Amino acid sequence: MTIVLNRIDDRLIHGQVVVGWGQPLDIAFIVLVDDAVAASDWEQELYRMGVPPEMDVRFHSAAAAASLLDSYRTETRPGILLTGDIATMRVLVANGGVREVNVGGIHHRAGRTPHLRYVFLTAEEQQALRELAELGAVVTAQDVPAARAVPLEELLTSHEGR
Amino acid sequence: MSDSVKRALVAGHADFAAGMISAVEQISGRGDVLVGIEVNGLCGDDIQKLLRDALVETGVRVIFTDLQAGSCTMAARRVLREVTDVVLVAGTNLPMLLDFTLSSDPDPVTAATHAVDRGRTSVSIHGAGAP
């Protein structure tokens, strides 16, 4: 097995990730890539407490993670790569060999418009997602395994979240 | 929000808060001491702000959430860094909330501690050869 899901989710580790994806995919580890979390012992402890004891969480900055992903891909157990924003995932697509991106949760914030009930985007974020695709990644939106994977162009033109 | 003295916030996934409060109200008639927090579609920062504002507005000292890994729990734990007299209970179940709302203990933190014990001991499994 390897990293089976590359997910953008501004809530990082939460119920959908740990239970929704974690249980059916039998996830053994989460690689959480976030510069702020990587620099904070308190934040890391917060996220560690959110996962069951059999699930490992490894924390990296974006710059450090890009060169480490190949080693994670040799893991015998399945794992999830997680970023809190598009910019961090862009680093991993450009420099870390990520070829599939799951948009799992970009929630409401001032300046964002609704696309799906779990995806709200600014114009700049829409463009950033297009750039992930231009870099060679297949980008879809899907909050939980039972939901349909929404292709990027459909996501960008959808206003289901209104 | 009704005029009853509020004792705790309840927050969780989807309609967890509304469902739990509805069940507490039906069973005990004390649902109005709980304040449900609706977080659908919100980012973590906004959930944190919502919880912080609700604590200030209501003056309650107890937060009940559903999952240990849930966004509400994460946000509440961040709020707890800023306040020292509030407790968070994650993994809330209905027996726990009922015990809390029916408690006559004037200290909500003590009532929450008792409720956690009740919630833990209220889980059982029956049938199909279960031990």
Task: Explain this structure.
The complex is a heterodimer of chains A (162) and B (131). With 162 residues, chain A is an alpha/beta fold. In chain A, 36% of the residues lie in helices and 25% in strands. Chain A has helices at residues 15-21, 35-38, 41-48, 62-72, 86-95, 123-134, 152-157, and strands spanning 3-9, 29-33, 56-60, 79-83, 100-105, 113-116, 119-121, 138-141, 150-151. In chain A, a hairpin with an 8-residue loop joins strand 8 and strand 9 (150-151). Chain A is globular. Chain B is an alpha/beta fold and 131 residues long. In chain B, 47% of the residues lie in helices and 12% in strands. Chain B has helices spanning 16-28, 44-58, 71-80, 94-102, 108-121, and strands at 8-11, 34-37, 62-65, 87-90. In chain B, helix 1 (16-28) crosses helix 4. The termini of chain B are far apart. The interface between A and B is medium-sized, with 24 and 19 residues.
Layout of helices and strands:
The complex is a heterodimer of chains A (about 160) and B (about 130).
Chain A: E1 3-9, H1 15-21, E2 29-33, H2 35-38, H3 41-48, E3 56-60, H4 62-72, E4 79-83, H5 86-95, E5 100-105, E6 113-116, E7 119-121, H6 123-134, E8 138-141, E9 150-151, H7 152-157
Parallel strand pairs in A: 1-4, 1-5, 2-3, 2-4, 5-8
Antiparallel strand pairs in A: 6-7, 8-9
Chain B: E1 8-11, H1 16-28, E2 34-37, H2 44-58, E3 62-65, H3 71-80, E4 87-90, H4 94-102, H5 108-121
Parallel strand pairs in B: 1-2, 1-3, 3-4
